[in-house]
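Subgroup meeting minutes
Present: P.N., E.W., G.H.
Scribe: E.W.

1. P.N. recapped why we're keeping a running log of single-chain structure predictions: easier to compare across weeks, and new members can see raw inputs and outputs side by side.
2. G.H. added today's entry (145 aa).
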Amino acid sequence: MTVRRIMNKNVVYLTPDDTAAHAARLLERHNIGVLPVCSSDGKLRGVVTDRDIAIRCVAFDNPPEDTKVRDIMTRGIVTISPDDDVTEAANAMAAEQIRRLPVVENNQVVGILSLADIATRASYNAELSSALSEICMPENRFRRF
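Output recorded in log:
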């Protein structure tokens, strides 16, 4: 099955000049966890998550009303094509330890694929389990003392 068949096509996005406060309101209003950040020509520049707002803005006492999305967004985003197989998408999520993938076609964001989208398809239980366990696996970045 292709990503196109199960992705969420109702994409809400931000521009780099939007504020963190605006991003937070959109995340809450739409009950979502990620917002693509697109330039005026529609090209994906990054994403903003609720965690980006909390860690890169609030934790540093930066006022969300004055903080631009460009200053807190995550760059270097892994994307998937709508014509890619869902298994390939799940493998990318597992490898990168991410829960959501922007779906890009002709340099434009056309959807978002989440683990929840995959989970609603019973035929993908194995891929979901594998991806979820990889995503939740702690990185080996902390030394034990």
